[in-house]
Write a structure and sequence with these properties.
Structural class: mainly alpha
Order of helices and strands: HHHHHHHHHHHHHH
Mean pLDDT: 91
Low-confidence stretches: none
Distance between the termini: 44 Å
Number of helices: 14
Number of strands: 0
Radius of gyration: 22 Å
Length: about 200
């Protein structure tokens, strides 16, 4: 955890990379994946400043001019620490964490309310943020179908709506609000929902 914390502090505060850019460099460099796999070379073999050099060499083709190896216990340091802990505790990939509402700026912004709290408090907050993001991306049709315990195939057979259209509505490739009245009323009837819920 300390190496990732030091890497975040040095990359952002010493090298001057914007937080989101540096975090994306970390993701695309492959270093994140090595940490997720618990590769000991990345967990303990490299220092935080060495990880900064590695990330920048891989992503930009050159190492930053001067990293003196010092760091501060900054919000960026804390963000690296808690992200390392959360990834280890949950097994969720760093990319999944970032893509589901917990981007680096949000983690840094949580420093003041949470930096003196137990790490599990951060984990609980992170779980809630990710769950809200994931839940918001699920279509109302899929939520209603799952609430009824139906598969897409079963819903298609019972409603008379093609499986292809049900998949398109659930994946939001087709706009459910533009579906014809007959389609919507069939789905609402099968799913026991009121008009406008799906």
């Amino acid at each position: 955890m300390e190496n990732l914390a030091t890497m975040m502090d040095c990359g952002i505060n010493q090298c001057g990379f914007p937080p989101r850019l540096f975090y994306r460099m970390f993701l695309t460099s492959g270093v994140a994946g090595q940490i997720e796999k618990c590769n000991p070379r990345y967990l303990a073999g490299f220092s935080g400043p060495e990880l900064v050099s590695l990330v920048t060499e891989i992503t930009m083709g050159e190492s930053p001019a001067a990293i003196d190896g010092t760091f501060t216990i900054s919000p960026e340091y804390w963000a690296g620490w808690v992200l390392a802990y959360y990834q280890w505790k949950t097994g969720k990939p760093f990319r999944f964490i970032e893509e589901n509402g917990l981007h680096i700026e949000k983690v840094i912004a949580l420093y003041h309310p949470l930096h003196e709290a137990d790490l599990d408090k951060f984990a609980n907050v992170a779980d809630k943020i990710i769950a809200e993001t994931v839940n918001a991306s699920i279509s109302p049709l899929k939520k209603a179908r799952e609430r009824c315990g139906l598969t897409q195939e079963e819903l298609a057979r019972i409603s008379g709506i093609s499986l292809r259209m049900i998949r398109a509505y659930e994946q939001k490739a087709q706009d459910m609000s533009k579906a014809n009245f007959r389609t919507v009323s069939r789905l609402e009837s099968v799913l026991h929902t009121d008009f406008g819920e799906i």
